[in-house]
């Protein structure tokens, strides 16, 4: 990708611990970053609608959306904390070629940190899932979907703690050597680090789901 900027990066952080680092990471990759903090459900919907209509997509090569919130397995609650919340399946629908023609044929990257409420947490989160059956996303071309789940009790113990998934992702994207790799290769490194973290941190287990329908190798900087 070679457009300047590469595209719009929309960061919606309803927790507030990672927005600064994520902003720096995607700005370093020459994205136009729009960062929104502590949004309720209505505000998230308005921002997604507005982001899909941005004229900047026309001349860009890519779109990124980062979403951080409490939730359950397949929904986020935003700051309303109302169940069932916003269904993550709907997130990609705002940016399909039909809804956002300027992004047709362009990569659309989604990075989600979902802090799952304890009463909704199921299964063993100690494993890294790749191409698993935990969801049906994505269903259309040119989607990269990385969804990380972590028990929300971590926030109760340490309210200001950063997500290891997001901080590691940001670090890899800012590393002068790692960022030269195709995005999927970067995620092989990310998966390895998540796996090692889970091995030595029994009380803070990350479950990472990766799905994509990319049709080409994706480099976030010019090789």
Automatic annotation (TrEMBL):
<dbReference type="Pfam" id="PF00656">
    <property type="entry name" value="Peptidase_C14"/>
</dbReference>
<dbReference type="InterPro" id="IPR015917">
    <property type="entry name" value="Pept_C14A"/>
</dbReference>
<feature type="domain" description="Caspase family p20">
    <location>
        <begin position="18"/>
        <end position="113"/>
    </location>
</feature>
<dbReference type="InterPro" id="IPR029030">
    <property type="entry name" value="Caspase-like_dom_sf"/>
</dbReference>
<protein>
    <submittedName>
        <fullName>CASP8 and FADD-like apoptosis regulator</fullName>
    </submittedName>
</protein>
<dbReference type="GO" id="GO:0043067">
    <property type="term" value="P:regulation of programmed cell death"/>
</dbReference>
<dbReference type="GO" id="GO:0004197">
    <property type="term" value="F:cysteine-type endopeptidase activity"/>
</dbReference>
<dbReference type="GO" id="GO:0006915">
    <property type="term" value="P:apoptotic process"/>
</dbReference>
<comment type="similarity">
    <text>Belongs to the peptidase C14A family.</text>
</comment>
<keyword id="KW-0053">Apoptosis</keyword>
<dbReference type="InterPro" id="IPR011600">
    <property type="entry name" value="Pept_C14_caspase"/>
</dbReference>
<dbReference type="InterPro" id="IPR001309">
    <property type="entry name" value="Pept_C14_p20"/>
</dbReference>
<dbReference type="GO" id="GO:0006508">
    <property type="term" value="P:proteolysis"/>
</dbReference>
<dbReference type="GO" id="GO:0005737">
    <property type="term" value="C:cytoplasm"/>
</dbReference>
